[in-house]
Structure formats: structure tokens, C-alpha cells
């Protein structure tokens, strides 16, 4: 059942306040704006670099008819108990539309505690979604983001350090004691794989994306202002591919630009300055002739790291295609 929150959307304010939401993936489906966030819950568990504080169990789908319309909560779209292979921690999801079907992609820990990526389908953008029996073969880590290019080919971007386990997969298999590269070595990039026509499997093996500076040199692991940490997102503007992501420890959203969806990408700058709360995770979408950045912070909960709220703000480009810096707390 749909639940109308009776709350109109206001830029840089929580779009819903009856639940805590984070990691918003925004898409335009059927002429409306649909947001696919994770659903933060309160608990008494530990807070650590492993991400145990993020104990999310289900997903709600939100929608908006316009940027200043009331936000609709369409209720529970998928719960971990309905995912046969998953054990816990339904983290940041994404959605896509192809084959007259809506797809929800999501990470969760399998029965061995290893993060994998699953898929679920629905006839409606608001769900509910029915999960596939098994996770996507060859998938690992977190933060799936799916981009359907103009030629119909779909790509999945994914990966996150620390709790997201990305550094544990450098050898191609999961090694729980593996550490990331040294500070003076190239940083780990996000992974990308082409998806099959039915969107339910990898058509190509995941490969690491290269992010370089203006001189063509790989961004180093010690460059925490620019290096990849988690939360990839892909969008296209004026024929260029924009890979945006979180820097993690320096709490920024940044971006790099390339000529192909698989890279390489040249680092360009910062999109969003740090927000209240440890994580930062986003999406970028064009809706009704304007561009918007969806993000989250912990302002509604007074800074509680695992009780976050989705917000959004208009995003602007300069004439050269660079993105104007957004400082969300400036009035």
C-alpha cells in the first residue's frame, strides 16, 4: 500500500522524516522521479570501520511528481528475509528499466558473511520486487550502480573499501586478511561489468576502472582527496561519461570524466563538500529539464552515523562541462 507522507520536497532538507533513508539512487520512470534508498534502522550494535552500524534490513521506494511535490513512500519493496541467499545488511541499492521490467540491484552479505550483489524484478517501478534465488555469479563488494547506455548496453559499477570488502578481492578471490595498496601505489578503482541482455548476469568479467589525473597518472591510494572509496554513479552529459563517487575518509563527492563507460576517467573536481555524518553517497539525475544531486546526511538524527536522511539539490554545469561545487549548508 502506498503511504503518502504529506511532506512536500524542499531542496537540502530531508525528503521524508517518518523513516531514516540513505544512499539514494534517483531515476525517472513513467514521467516521475523514483528514489531507491537504503533504509536505516536504529539498534544497539557496534559502530566500526567494518560498517556494523549499518544494519539495514529492507528497502522502501519513494517517488515525486515534481521537484516540489509531496513525496510518496510506496512501502516495503524488498526485505532481506525474502532473499534466499542473503543473511544481513541490505546496503545501497540501485534500479534500472529494460525489457519492460524494473530491476532492483542490491548488496548484502551472503551466508558466509561475504558481500555479494543480487537482483530483483518487478512490473512496477515502486515494487514490490521479487529477488532472484542466487546472487549474481561473479559479483562481490557493495554499491551497485547500473547505467543503461543509449545503444542499449547496460553496465554495472560497484565496489567499496573497508566494510565493502573491495580490497579483499585484489587477487580475484576473497582473502579476508588482504589489505589495500600502499599510499604511493595506484588506488583501487571501482569495478565495472557489462550486463547480459536480461540484466541478471555479468556478460563480461568485472574489471577495475582506471582514474587518472590531468597528466594521465593513476590517482594514488594516499591521495584521499581524490581517490575512490565507494558509491560509484554514472551519468552522461553532452556526450561525456561522468563517473562520480565518494572519497570516504575525506567525506567528499567527486567526479572524473571519460569518453567510454568503462574508462579511463580523468579526475575533474569536487561536487559536494562534506556533510554531517561519516558516509556520503549520491546519485545524479536529469528531471523536467533540470539536473539534481541526491545525497544524504545525518542532520535529522543530530549526527547519528547510522540514522541518515536523503536530501537533494539542483546541480549546475559550467560551459566547459565541469560541475559547479555544491556546499549544502550555505544559505
Automatic annotation (TrEMBL):
Name the CDD domains for this protein.
GH43_CoXyl43_like
Q: Which superkingdom is the protein from?
A: Bacteria
Q: Which UniProt keywords apply?
A: Carbohydrate metabolism, Glycosidase, Hydrolase, Polysaccharide degradation, Xylan degradation
Annotated active site residues, numbered on this chain, are 44 (proton acceptor), 208 (proton donor)
Instruction: Give GO BP annotations, semicolon-separated.
Output: xylan catabolic process
The residues annotated as site (Important for catalytic activity, responsible for pKa modulation of the active site Glu and correct orientation of both the proton donor and substrate) are: 143
One Pfam family recorded for the sequence: Glyco_hydro_43
One of the record's GO molecular function terms: hydrolase activity, hydrolyzing O-glycosyl compounds
GTP-binding found in the keyword field:
no
Q: Would you identify the family this protein belongs to, as annotated?
A: Belongs to the glycosyl hydrolase 43 family.
Q: What is the official name of this protein in its record?
A: Alpha-N-arabinofuranosidase
